[in-house]
User: Fold this.
Amino acid sequence: MKQKYNCPVLVREIQDTLFMSQQQIAAKLKVSQQSISNWMIGTRNPGPFAASELLTMATESGIDISKHEANPAFDGINSYMKKNKSRELVRIFELYSRMSGADKKRLVRYAEGMK
Assistant:
């Protein structure tokens, strides 16, 4: 996956979409449950084989993987928020990261209109 995709958000969406536990995902990918946990909290990234299988699993389940392309600026802000702010704000950033480009633009226009 080599930092091309936001792995924690992608794994969480796979888990939510397929209604699978970490253990079930781990069994399907032939990795440990601890590996899945590490990917979800961002302490580690999947190896090449697991990353390929993860992307295949996402694609087969109908998840638009292009929504999960890494964005270094966003990832930096998200990391800061996780360490320093409330869970609600982190959730907003997680939801924003899942939005399509068009939805993000609409949200920004809406927020600018609220000023």
